[in-house]
Amino acid sequence: MGNRKTIKKPLPSVQPKMDEWPIYKAYNKKEQFLEKVKSQVLLNSSWINKDESTLRYEIKNILYEEKMRLSKTPWKSDNPKEKIFWSEIKQKIRNSKAIENKEGTKEIDEKILDDIIEFYLNEMVANFKISSFKFAQKALPYVYSRLINSFPQIVYKLFSSVDKLYDRMKIVGDIDHIRKLQEIGTVVVVPTHYSNLDSPTIGLSLNNLGLSAFTYGAGVNLFTIKSLSKFMHNLGAYKVDRRRKHRLYLETLKSYSTIALTEDVNSLFYPGGSRSQSGKLEKKLKLGLLGTVIDAQRINLDNGNGKKIFIIPVTLNYHYVLEAKKLIDNYLKNKGKENYMEDENTTSFGLIKRAYKVITSNPGMTVSFAPAIDVFGNKVDENGNSFSNKGQVIEVADYFKLNGKLVRDVQRDSQYTQILGDKILQEFKENSVILSSNLVAYVAFQIIRNRFSQFSVFDILSLPKDETIIKVSEFLPKLEAVRTKLKKLAEDKKIILSSDLDFEGNELMRIGIEKVGSSHPKYVLRLNKKDEISTQSMKLLYYYHNKLSSYELEEQS
Q1: pTM for this one?
Q2: Which class in CATH covers the domain with range 171-320+365-431?
Q3: What is the rounded CA–CA span in Å between residue 369 and residue 367?
Q4: What residues does each domain of the chain span?
Q5: Interaxial angle between packed helices 106-124 and 30-44, expressed in degrees from 0 to 180 and rounded to the nearest 10
Q6: Which of 1-10, 133-142, 487-496 is most confident?
Q7: Cα-Cα end-to-end distance for the chain
Q8: Alpha-carbon 553 to chain mean position
Protein backbone atom coordinates (compact mmCIF):
# COMPACT_ATOMS: atom_id res chain seq x y z
CA MET A 1 0.00 0.00 0.00
CA GLY A 2 1.02 3.61 -0.57
CA ASN A 3 0.99 6.58 1.81
CA ARG A 4 -1.47 9.32 2.68
CA LYS A 5 -1.29 12.27 0.35
CA THR A 6 -3.31 15.35 -0.49
CA ILE A 7 -5.13 15.74 -3.82
CA LYS A 8 -4.11 18.97 -5.53
CA LYS A 9 -6.50 18.58 -8.48
CA PRO A 10 -9.10 16.06 -9.75
CA LEU A 11 -7.60 12.75 -10.87
CA PRO A 12 -8.55 10.98 -14.13
CA SER A 13 -11.33 8.43 -13.88
CA VAL A 14 -10.31 4.85 -13.07
CA GLN A 15 -12.88 3.80 -15.71
CA PRO A 16 -13.18 6.60 -18.33
CA LYS A 17 -16.14 5.03 -20.18
CA MET A 18 -19.21 5.98 -18.16
CA ASP A 19 -21.45 3.56 -20.02
CA GLU A 20 -19.26 0.81 -18.54
CA TRP A 21 -19.88 1.97 -14.98
CA PRO A 22 -21.85 -0.56 -12.90
CA ILE A 23 -24.32 2.10 -11.75
CA TYR A 24 -25.21 2.87 -15.36
CA LYS A 25 -25.57 -0.79 -16.30
CA ALA A 26 -27.72 -1.63 -13.26
CA TYR A 27 -30.13 1.28 -13.58
CA ASN A 28 -30.23 1.05 -17.38
CA LYS A 29 -31.84 -2.39 -16.92
CA LYS A 30 -34.20 -1.27 -14.21
CA GLU A 31 -36.80 -4.01 -14.56
CA GLN A 32 -34.23 -6.77 -14.16
CA PHE A 33 -32.65 -4.95 -11.22
CA LEU A 34 -35.96 -4.52 -9.40
CA GLU A 35 -36.93 -8.13 -10.02
CA LYS A 36 -33.74 -9.23 -8.29
CA VAL A 37 -34.50 -6.92 -5.37
CA LYS A 38 -38.03 -8.28 -5.03
CA SER A 39 -36.74 -11.85 -5.03
CA GLN A 40 -34.29 -10.90 -2.28
CA VAL A 41 -37.09 -9.35 -0.20
CA LEU A 42 -39.18 -12.50 -0.43
CA LEU A 43 -36.16 -14.68 0.34
CA ASN A 44 -35.30 -12.75 3.49
CA SER A 45 -38.86 -12.27 4.79
CA SER A 46 -39.33 -15.56 6.61
CA TRP A 47 -42.67 -14.51 8.08
CA ILE A 48 -44.21 -14.64 4.58
CA ASN A 49 -44.01 -18.45 4.58
CA LYS A 50 -45.65 -18.82 7.98
CA ASP A 51 -49.36 -19.56 8.44
CA GLU A 52 -51.94 -17.54 6.54
CA SER A 53 -53.11 -15.58 9.58
CA THR A 54 -49.60 -14.22 10.11
CA LEU A 55 -49.35 -12.98 6.52
CA ARG A 56 -52.78 -11.34 6.66
CA TYR A 57 -51.94 -9.72 10.00
CA GLU A 58 -48.74 -8.27 8.53
CA ILE A 59 -50.59 -6.79 5.55
CA LYS A 60 -53.23 -5.22 7.79
CA ASN A 61 -50.49 -3.78 9.98
CA ILE A 62 -48.70 -2.31 6.95
CA LEU A 63 -51.95 -0.71 5.76
CA TYR A 64 -52.61 0.78 9.20
CA GLU A 65 -49.10 2.23 9.52
CA GLU A 66 -49.19 3.71 6.02
CA LYS A 67 -52.55 5.40 6.58
CA MET A 68 -51.31 6.79 9.90
CA ARG A 69 -48.18 8.13 8.22
CA LEU A 70 -50.19 9.92 5.53
CA SER A 71 -52.63 11.42 8.02
CA LYS A 72 -50.32 12.25 10.96
CA THR A 73 -46.99 13.12 9.32
CA PRO A 74 -47.64 14.09 5.69
CA TRP A 75 -44.84 15.67 3.68
CA LYS A 76 -44.94 17.79 0.54
CA SER A 77 -42.73 15.24 -1.16
CA ASP A 78 -45.25 12.41 -0.66
CA ASN A 79 -46.39 10.67 -3.83
CA PRO A 80 -49.85 12.04 -4.73
CA LYS A 81 -50.84 8.56 -5.94
CA GLU A 82 -50.23 6.99 -2.54
CA LYS A 83 -53.69 7.56 -1.11
CA ILE A 84 -55.26 5.91 -4.14
CA PHE A 85 -52.90 2.95 -3.90
CA TRP A 86 -53.56 2.29 -0.22
CA SER A 87 -57.31 2.71 -0.72
CA GLU A 88 -57.12 -0.01 -3.37
CA ILE A 89 -55.18 -2.28 -1.00
CA LYS A 90 -57.83 -1.70 1.67
CA GLN A 91 -60.56 -2.60 -0.80
CA LYS A 92 -58.77 -5.81 -1.80
CA ILE A 93 -58.59 -6.86 1.85
CA ARG A 94 -62.28 -6.06 2.32
CA ASN A 95 -63.28 -8.02 -0.77
CA SER A 96 -61.48 -11.10 0.52
CA LYS A 97 -62.98 -10.95 4.02
CA ALA A 98 -65.96 -13.03 2.89
CA ILE A 99 -63.67 -16.01 2.34
CA GLU A 100 -61.29 -15.24 5.20
CA ASN A 101 -62.99 -17.69 7.56
CA LYS A 102 -63.97 -20.23 4.92
CA GLU A 103 -61.00 -20.68 2.64
CA GLY A 104 -57.34 -19.80 2.67
CA THR A 105 -56.44 -16.23 1.63
CA LYS A 106 -52.72 -16.87 1.17
CA GLU A 107 -52.84 -16.60 -2.62
CA ILE A 108 -54.71 -13.29 -2.42
CA ASP A 109 -52.43 -11.97 0.33
CA GLU A 110 -49.28 -12.92 -1.56
CA LYS A 111 -50.56 -10.94 -4.55
CA ILE A 112 -51.30 -7.95 -2.30
CA LEU A 113 -47.83 -8.26 -0.78
CA ASP A 114 -46.32 -8.40 -4.25
CA ASP A 115 -48.16 -5.19 -5.19
CA ILE A 116 -46.88 -3.42 -2.06
CA ILE A 117 -43.27 -4.43 -2.69
CA GLU A 118 -43.49 -3.26 -6.30
CA PHE A 119 -44.99 0.04 -5.15
CA TYR A 120 -42.13 0.59 -2.71
CA LEU A 121 -39.49 -0.31 -5.27
CA ASN A 122 -40.90 1.91 -8.02
CA GLU A 123 -40.97 4.78 -5.55
CA MET A 124 -37.48 3.98 -4.24
CA VAL A 125 -35.48 3.15 -7.36
CA ALA A 126 -32.79 5.55 -8.56
CA ASN A 127 -31.68 6.44 -12.05
CA PHE A 128 -28.35 7.37 -13.58
CA LYS A 129 -28.01 9.68 -16.56
CA ILE A 130 -24.54 10.29 -17.93
CA SER A 131 -25.52 13.81 -19.07
CA SER A 132 -26.66 14.74 -15.53
CA PHE A 133 -23.46 13.37 -14.02
CA LYS A 134 -21.27 15.27 -16.48
CA PHE A 135 -23.17 18.47 -15.69
CA ALA A 136 -22.64 17.87 -11.96
CA GLN A 137 -18.93 17.27 -12.53
CA LYS A 138 -18.63 20.73 -14.08
CA ALA A 139 -21.13 22.65 -11.96
CA LEU A 140 -20.42 21.40 -8.43
CA PRO A 141 -16.76 22.54 -8.23
CA TYR A 142 -17.80 25.95 -9.56
CA VAL A 143 -20.61 26.34 -7.02
CA TYR A 144 -18.35 25.10 -4.26
CA SER A 145 -15.56 27.48 -5.14
CA ARG A 146 -18.01 30.39 -5.08
CA LEU A 147 -19.02 29.42 -1.56
CA ILE A 148 -15.57 29.10 -0.04
CA ASN A 149 -13.51 31.63 -2.01
CA SER A 150 -13.28 35.16 -0.76
CA PHE A 151 -15.75 37.91 -1.60
CA PRO A 152 -13.47 40.00 -3.89
CA GLN A 153 -12.82 36.89 -6.00
CA ILE A 154 -16.55 36.40 -6.44
CA VAL A 155 -17.10 40.02 -7.48
CA TYR A 156 -14.09 40.52 -9.70
CA LYS A 157 -13.35 36.98 -10.86
CA LEU A 158 -16.82 35.51 -11.14
CA PHE A 159 -15.80 33.14 -13.90
CA SER A 160 -12.30 32.42 -12.70
CA SER A 161 -10.69 29.00 -12.33
CA VAL A 162 -11.77 26.72 -9.47
CA ASP A 163 -8.16 25.78 -8.73
CA LYS A 164 -8.16 27.71 -5.45
CA LEU A 165 -10.98 25.44 -4.27
CA TYR A 166 -8.38 22.86 -3.30
CA ASP A 167 -6.53 25.36 -1.14
CA ARG A 168 -9.68 25.51 0.98
CA MET A 169 -10.91 21.94 0.59
CA LYS A 170 -8.23 19.37 1.38
CA ILE A 171 -8.79 15.75 0.34
CA VAL A 172 -6.32 13.39 1.99
CA GLY A 173 -5.79 9.63 2.24
CA ASP A 174 -4.11 6.67 0.62
CA ILE A 175 -5.53 7.69 -2.73
CA ASP A 176 -3.58 5.24 -4.91
CA HIS A 177 -4.78 2.32 -2.81
CA ILE A 178 -8.43 3.38 -3.06
CA ARG A 179 -8.18 3.76 -6.84
CA LYS A 180 -6.59 0.32 -7.14
CA LEU A 181 -9.38 -1.27 -5.09
CA GLN A 182 -11.95 0.37 -7.38
CA GLU A 183 -10.45 -1.60 -10.26
CA ILE A 184 -10.81 -4.97 -8.56
CA GLY A 185 -13.91 -4.69 -6.36
CA THR A 186 -16.85 -2.66 -5.11
CA VAL A 187 -16.27 0.37 -2.91
CA VAL A 188 -18.54 1.37 -0.03
CA VAL A 189 -17.85 4.77 1.53
CA VAL A 190 -19.08 5.42 5.10
CA PRO A 191 -18.60 9.07 6.19
CA THR A 192 -19.17 10.92 9.43
CA HIS A 193 -22.21 13.19 9.28
CA TYR A 194 -22.23 16.78 10.54
CA SER A 195 -23.92 18.98 7.98
CA ASN A 196 -26.25 19.23 5.00
CA LEU A 197 -23.06 20.18 3.18
CA ASP A 198 -21.73 16.64 3.68
CA SER A 199 -23.33 15.10 0.58
CA PRO A 200 -21.94 17.60 -1.97
CA THR A 201 -18.62 17.55 -0.08
CA ILE A 202 -18.25 13.77 -0.25
CA GLY A 203 -19.65 13.67 -3.80
CA LEU A 204 -17.06 16.14 -5.04
CA SER A 205 -14.31 14.31 -3.16
CA LEU A 206 -15.19 10.91 -4.64
CA ASN A 207 -15.34 12.38 -8.13
CA ASN A 208 -11.91 13.98 -7.59
CA LEU A 209 -10.54 10.55 -6.67
CA GLY A 210 -11.65 9.38 -10.12
CA LEU A 211 -14.03 6.71 -8.80
CA SER A 212 -17.12 5.50 -10.64
CA ALA A 213 -20.38 7.07 -9.47
CA PHE A 214 -21.98 5.96 -6.20
CA THR A 215 -25.58 5.15 -5.38
CA TYR A 216 -26.89 6.48 -2.08
CA GLY A 217 -30.09 6.76 -0.09
CA ALA A 218 -31.65 10.21 0.28
CA GLY A 219 -34.64 11.10 2.46
CA VAL A 220 -37.87 11.62 0.52
CA ASN A 221 -38.17 15.02 2.25
CA LEU A 222 -35.26 16.18 0.05
CA PHE A 223 -37.29 15.52 -3.09
CA THR A 224 -39.70 18.44 -2.60
CA ILE A 225 -38.37 20.71 -5.36
CA LYS A 226 -39.20 19.05 -8.66
CA SER A 227 -36.10 20.11 -10.62
CA LEU A 228 -33.70 19.24 -7.76
CA SER A 229 -35.55 15.97 -7.17
CA LYS A 230 -35.10 14.92 -10.79
CA PHE A 231 -31.44 15.89 -10.73
CA MET A 232 -30.72 13.90 -7.56
CA HIS A 233 -32.67 10.96 -8.98
CA ASN A 234 -30.54 10.98 -12.14
CA LEU A 235 -27.33 11.00 -10.06
CA GLY A 236 -28.08 7.67 -8.40
CA ALA A 237 -30.06 8.77 -5.33
CA TYR A 238 -32.70 6.27 -4.23
CA LYS A 239 -35.51 7.48 -1.97
CA VAL A 240 -35.66 6.51 1.69
CA ASP A 241 -38.73 7.26 3.82
CA ARG A 242 -37.57 7.14 7.45
CA ARG A 243 -41.15 7.43 8.71
CA ARG A 244 -41.77 3.86 7.56
CA LYS A 245 -40.62 1.54 10.34
CA HIS A 246 -42.41 -1.73 9.54
CA ARG A 247 -40.31 -4.73 8.60
CA LEU A 248 -41.46 -5.14 4.99
CA TYR A 249 -40.28 -1.65 4.07
CA LEU A 250 -37.03 -2.01 6.00
CA GLU A 251 -36.38 -5.36 4.33
CA THR A 252 -37.13 -3.84 0.92
CA LEU A 253 -34.64 -1.04 1.62
CA LYS A 254 -31.94 -3.46 2.76
CA SER A 255 -32.55 -5.79 -0.19
CA TYR A 256 -32.23 -2.82 -2.57
CA SER A 257 -28.84 -1.98 -1.10
CA THR A 258 -27.73 -5.63 -1.14
CA ILE A 259 -28.57 -6.17 -4.81
CA ALA A 260 -26.95 -2.88 -5.82
CA LEU A 261 -23.74 -4.12 -4.19
CA THR A 262 -23.95 -7.52 -5.86
CA GLU A 263 -24.31 -5.63 -9.15
CA ASP A 264 -20.93 -4.01 -8.32
CA VAL A 265 -22.46 -0.56 -7.77
CA ASN A 266 -20.36 1.64 -5.48
CA SER A 267 -22.45 2.73 -2.49
CA LEU A 268 -22.50 5.47 0.11
CA PHE A 269 -24.01 5.13 3.61
CA TYR A 270 -24.05 7.50 6.56
CA PRO A 271 -23.76 4.79 9.24
CA GLY A 272 -24.50 7.27 12.03
CA GLY A 273 -27.89 7.92 10.44
CA SER A 274 -28.65 11.59 11.05
CA ARG A 275 -26.28 14.52 11.53
CA SER A 276 -24.38 14.74 14.80
CA GLN A 277 -26.40 17.24 16.82
CA SER A 278 -23.77 17.67 19.52
CA GLY A 279 -20.76 18.08 17.23
CA LYS A 280 -19.23 14.93 18.72
CA LEU A 281 -17.90 12.00 16.74
CA GLU A 282 -20.36 9.17 16.34
CA LYS A 283 -20.27 6.70 19.25
CA LYS A 284 -22.99 4.41 17.96
CA LEU A 285 -23.95 3.40 14.43
CA LYS A 286 -27.19 2.30 12.82
CA LEU A 287 -26.36 -1.13 11.48
CA GLY A 288 -29.32 -1.80 9.14
CA LEU A 289 -27.87 -0.79 5.79
CA LEU A 290 -24.35 -1.54 6.97
CA GLY A 291 -25.35 -5.18 7.33
CA THR A 292 -26.12 -5.34 3.61
CA VAL A 293 -22.39 -5.39 2.82
CA ILE A 294 -22.16 -8.71 4.70
CA ASP A 295 -25.13 -10.13 2.77
CA ALA A 296 -23.77 -8.91 -0.54
CA GLN A 297 -20.29 -10.35 0.08
CA ARG A 298 -21.77 -13.76 0.90
CA ILE A 299 -23.98 -13.66 -2.22
CA ASN A 300 -20.97 -12.77 -4.37
CA LEU A 301 -19.09 -15.77 -3.01
CA ASP A 302 -22.15 -18.00 -3.38
CA ASN A 303 -22.53 -16.93 -7.00
CA GLY A 304 -18.95 -17.88 -7.68
CA ASN A 305 -17.60 -14.49 -8.74
CA GLY A 306 -15.90 -13.85 -5.38
CA LYS A 307 -15.75 -10.11 -6.04
CA LYS A 308 -14.79 -8.33 -2.83
CA ILE A 309 -16.47 -5.37 -1.21
CA PHE A 310 -14.20 -2.78 0.39
CA ILE A 311 -15.26 -0.35 3.12
CA ILE A 312 -13.68 3.09 3.34
CA PRO A 313 -14.49 5.20 6.42
CA VAL A 314 -14.27 8.94 5.77
CA THR A 315 -14.19 11.80 8.25
CA LEU A 316 -15.48 15.24 7.28
CA ASN A 317 -13.71 17.97 9.22
CA TYR A 318 -15.05 21.54 9.22
CA HIS A 319 -14.02 24.80 10.84
CA TYR A 320 -17.63 25.92 10.42
CA VAL A 321 -20.94 24.00 10.29
CA LEU A 322 -23.80 26.02 8.85
CA GLU A 323 -26.50 24.39 10.98
CA ALA A 324 -24.48 24.23 14.23
CA LYS A 325 -26.86 26.57 16.12
CA LYS A 326 -29.95 24.53 15.26
CA LEU A 327 -28.23 21.19 15.87
CA ILE A 328 -26.85 22.06 19.30
CA ASP A 329 -30.20 23.58 20.27
CA ASN A 330 -31.94 20.30 19.44
CA TYR A 331 -29.30 18.28 21.29
CA LEU A 332 -29.52 20.37 24.45
CA LYS A 333 -33.31 20.48 24.33
CA ASN A 334 -33.51 16.69 24.15
CA LYS A 335 -30.86 16.17 26.79
CA GLY A 336 -31.72 18.93 29.23
CA LYS A 337 -35.53 19.09 29.05
CA GLU A 338 -36.59 21.67 31.66
CA ASN A 339 -32.94 22.70 32.37
CA TYR A 340 -32.50 24.05 28.88
CA MET A 341 -33.17 27.68 27.94
CA GLU A 342 -33.35 28.66 24.27
CA ASP A 343 -31.73 31.77 22.87
CA GLU A 344 -33.71 34.41 21.10
CA ASN A 345 -34.67 33.69 17.50
CA THR A 346 -32.43 34.93 14.73
CA THR A 347 -33.75 38.11 13.13
CA SER A 348 -34.00 38.77 9.39
CA PHE A 349 -30.95 40.99 9.74
CA GLY A 350 -29.15 38.10 11.42
CA LEU A 351 -29.95 35.79 8.50
CA ILE A 352 -28.66 38.37 6.01
CA LYS A 353 -25.54 38.84 8.12
CA ARG A 354 -24.94 35.06 8.17
CA ALA A 355 -25.40 34.79 4.40
CA TYR A 356 -22.85 37.58 3.92
CA LYS A 357 -20.40 35.85 6.25
CA VAL A 358 -20.78 32.55 4.38
CA ILE A 359 -19.82 34.35 1.18
CA THR A 360 -16.96 36.39 2.58
CA SER A 361 -15.34 33.81 4.87
CA ASN A 362 -13.05 31.01 3.74
CA PRO A 363 -12.60 28.70 6.74
CA GLY A 364 -11.92 25.56 4.69
CA MET A 365 -12.39 21.86 5.41
CA THR A 366 -10.55 18.53 5.29
CA VAL A 367 -11.94 15.27 3.91
CA SER A 368 -9.93 12.39 5.35
CA PHE A 369 -10.10 8.91 3.79
CA ALA A 370 -9.17 6.15 6.25
CA PRO A 371 -7.40 2.94 5.17
CA ALA A 372 -9.69 0.51 3.35
CA ILE A 373 -11.00 -2.58 5.16
CA ASP A 374 -12.99 -5.65 4.12
CA VAL A 375 -16.56 -6.32 5.30
CA PHE A 376 -15.24 -7.84 8.54
CA GLY A 377 -12.99 -4.89 9.40
CA ASN A 378 -9.72 -6.50 8.29
CA LYS A 379 -7.04 -4.44 6.58
CA VAL A 380 -6.51 -5.09 2.85
CA ASP A 381 -3.50 -4.68 0.60
CA GLU A 382 -3.39 -3.16 -2.90
CA ASN A 383 -4.57 -6.43 -4.41
CA GLY A 384 -7.54 -6.65 -2.05
CA ASN A 385 -6.10 -9.47 0.09
CA SER A 386 -7.30 -9.41 3.70
CA PHE A 387 -4.94 -9.56 6.68
CA SER A 388 -5.41 -10.13 10.40
CA ASN A 389 -3.86 -7.82 13.00
CA LYS A 390 -0.94 -10.27 13.14
CA GLY A 391 -0.34 -9.98 9.39
CA GLN A 392 -1.78 -13.36 8.44
CA VAL A 393 -3.67 -13.71 5.15
CA ILE A 394 -7.41 -14.24 5.66
CA GLU A 395 -9.93 -15.77 3.26
CA VAL A 396 -13.24 -13.94 3.66
CA ALA A 397 -15.14 -17.01 2.42
CA ASP A 398 -14.16 -18.84 5.61
CA TYR A 399 -16.29 -16.44 7.65
CA PHE A 400 -19.43 -17.70 5.91
CA LYS A 401 -18.71 -21.43 5.99
CA LEU A 402 -20.24 -24.10 8.17
CA ASN A 403 -18.88 -27.60 7.75
CA GLY A 404 -17.05 -26.41 4.67
CA LYS A 405 -20.13 -24.93 2.96
CA LEU A 406 -21.25 -21.33 2.48
CA VAL A 407 -24.41 -20.76 4.52
CA ARG A 408 -26.62 -17.83 5.44
CA ASP A 409 -26.82 -17.36 9.20
CA VAL A 410 -28.73 -14.24 10.26
CA GLN A 411 -27.52 -14.26 13.87
CA ARG A 412 -23.89 -14.80 12.91
CA ASP A 413 -24.02 -12.10 10.23
CA SER A 414 -25.55 -9.71 12.74
CA GLN A 415 -22.50 -10.21 14.95
CA TYR A 416 -20.22 -9.61 11.97
CA THR A 417 -22.06 -6.35 11.30
CA GLN A 418 -21.49 -5.24 14.88
CA ILE A 419 -17.76 -6.02 14.56
CA LEU A 420 -17.62 -3.98 11.34
CA GLY A 421 -19.48 -1.11 13.02
CA ASP A 422 -17.01 -1.08 15.92
CA LYS A 423 -14.10 -0.99 13.47
CA ILE A 424 -15.63 1.94 11.58
CA LEU A 425 -16.06 3.87 14.85
CA GLN A 426 -12.39 3.21 15.63
CA GLU A 427 -11.38 4.46 12.16
CA PHE A 428 -13.53 7.58 12.59
CA LYS A 429 -11.68 8.39 15.77
CA GLU A 430 -8.19 7.61 14.51
CA ASN A 431 -8.62 9.34 11.14
CA SER A 432 -10.35 12.51 12.25
CA VAL A 433 -8.28 15.56 11.42
CA ILE A 434 -8.04 17.96 14.36
CA LEU A 435 -8.14 21.55 13.15
CA SER A 436 -6.93 24.67 14.91
CA SER A 437 -10.58 25.67 15.42
CA ASN A 438 -11.31 22.41 17.28
CA LEU A 439 -8.32 22.97 19.54
CA VAL A 440 -9.02 26.58 20.54
CA ALA A 441 -12.73 25.84 21.13
CA TYR A 442 -11.84 22.88 23.32
CA VAL A 443 -9.29 24.83 25.35
CA ALA A 444 -11.57 27.85 25.85
CA PHE A 445 -14.56 25.78 26.97
CA GLN A 446 -12.48 23.66 29.33
CA ILE A 447 -10.99 26.74 31.01
CA ILE A 448 -14.48 28.11 31.66
CA ARG A 449 -15.78 24.71 32.73
CA ASN A 450 -12.91 24.25 35.23
CA ARG A 451 -13.71 27.64 36.78
CA PHE A 452 -17.20 26.42 37.58
CA SER A 453 -16.60 22.72 38.07
CA GLN A 454 -19.50 22.52 40.51
CA PHE A 455 -21.94 23.68 37.79
CA SER A 456 -23.79 21.51 35.29
CA VAL A 457 -23.19 22.00 31.58
CA PHE A 458 -26.53 23.82 31.33
CA ASP A 459 -25.51 26.25 34.07
CA ILE A 460 -22.20 26.90 32.33
CA LEU A 461 -23.96 27.58 29.02
CA SER A 462 -26.04 30.26 30.79
CA LEU A 463 -23.13 32.12 32.39
CA PRO A 464 -23.00 35.93 32.06
CA LYS A 465 -20.55 37.10 29.40
CA ASP A 466 -18.20 38.72 31.91
CA GLU A 467 -17.71 35.31 33.58
CA THR A 468 -16.53 33.73 30.32
CA ILE A 469 -13.70 36.12 29.46
CA ILE A 470 -10.28 34.43 29.30
CA LYS A 471 -6.91 36.15 29.52
CA VAL A 472 -4.39 35.14 26.86
CA SER A 473 -1.88 34.52 29.66
CA GLU A 474 -4.26 31.85 31.00
CA PHE A 475 -5.18 30.49 27.58
CA LEU A 476 -1.75 29.86 26.03
CA PRO A 477 -0.35 27.46 28.68
CA LYS A 478 -3.52 25.35 28.47
CA LEU A 479 -3.29 25.43 24.67
CA GLU A 480 0.26 24.08 24.79
CA ALA A 481 -0.65 21.40 27.31
CA VAL A 482 -3.53 20.10 25.18
CA ARG A 483 -1.46 20.30 22.00
CA THR A 484 1.22 18.17 23.66
CA LYS A 485 -1.36 15.50 24.45
CA LEU A 486 -2.67 15.61 20.88
CA LYS A 487 0.83 15.18 19.50
CA LYS A 488 1.27 12.07 21.63
CA LEU A 489 -2.01 10.67 20.29
CA ALA A 490 -0.85 11.47 16.75
CA GLU A 491 2.46 9.68 17.34
CA ASP A 492 0.47 6.64 18.49
CA LYS A 493 -1.65 6.92 15.30
CA LYS A 494 -4.81 7.54 17.31
CA ILE A 495 -5.55 10.88 15.69
CA ILE A 496 -4.44 13.11 12.79
CA LEU A 497 -3.37 16.71 13.30
CA SER A 498 -3.87 19.47 10.77
CA SER A 499 -0.72 21.26 9.62
CA ASP A 500 -1.87 24.51 11.26
CA LEU A 501 -1.30 22.90 14.66
CA ASP A 502 2.43 23.25 13.93
CA PHE A 503 2.29 27.04 14.29
CA GLU A 504 3.83 28.83 17.26
CA GLY A 505 1.41 29.28 20.17
CA ASN A 506 0.26 32.86 19.54
CA GLU A 507 -0.18 32.26 15.81
CA LEU A 508 -2.03 28.98 16.40
CA MET A 509 -4.35 30.75 18.84
CA ARG A 510 -5.01 33.59 16.39
CA ILE A 511 -5.71 31.29 13.43
CA GLY A 512 -7.97 29.02 15.43
CA ILE A 513 -10.00 31.89 16.87
CA GLU A 514 -10.35 33.44 13.43
CA LYS A 515 -11.62 30.21 11.86
CA VAL A 516 -13.82 28.61 14.50
CA GLY A 517 -17.46 28.95 13.43
CA SER A 518 -16.40 31.94 11.36
CA SER A 519 -19.73 32.54 9.61
CA HIS A 520 -22.15 32.53 12.54
CA PRO A 521 -23.98 35.80 13.35
CA LYS A 522 -22.59 35.53 16.88
CA TYR A 523 -18.87 35.04 17.10
CA VAL A 524 -17.70 31.83 18.78
CA LEU A 525 -14.40 33.34 19.97
CA ARG A 526 -12.80 36.75 19.62
CA LEU A 527 -9.45 38.20 20.70
CA ASN A 528 -9.43 41.90 21.63
CA LYS A 529 -6.64 44.44 22.04
CA LYS A 530 -6.55 43.86 25.79
CA ASP A 531 -5.39 40.27 25.18
CA GLU A 532 -8.78 38.93 26.25
CA ILE A 533 -10.70 36.11 24.58
CA SER A 534 -14.49 36.29 24.70
CA THR A 535 -17.51 34.52 23.22
CA GLN A 536 -21.00 35.60 22.22
CA SER A 537 -22.35 32.04 22.26
CA MET A 538 -21.38 29.46 24.86
CA LYS A 539 -23.57 26.91 23.06
CA LEU A 540 -21.63 27.25 19.82
CA LEU A 541 -18.37 27.15 21.75
CA TYR A 542 -19.59 23.93 23.39
CA TYR A 543 -20.56 22.49 19.98
CA TYR A 544 -17.15 23.11 18.40
CA HIS A 545 -15.39 21.96 21.58
CA ASN A 546 -17.18 18.61 21.40
CA LYS A 547 -15.12 17.31 18.46
CA LEU A 548 -12.22 16.76 20.88
CA SER A 549 -14.34 15.55 23.80
CA SER A 550 -14.17 11.98 22.41
CA TYR A 551 -10.45 11.78 23.16
CA GLU A 552 -10.69 12.09 26.96
CA LEU A 553 -7.94 14.71 27.08
CA GLU A 554 -8.87 15.90 30.56
CA GLU A 555 -8.57 12.38 31.93
CA GLN A 556 -4.98 12.25 30.64
CA SER A 557 -3.90 15.16 32.85
Answers
A1: 0.91
A2: alpha beta
A3: 7
A4: 27-124, 171-320+365-431, 433-556
A5: 130
A6: 487-496
A7: 36
A8: 26
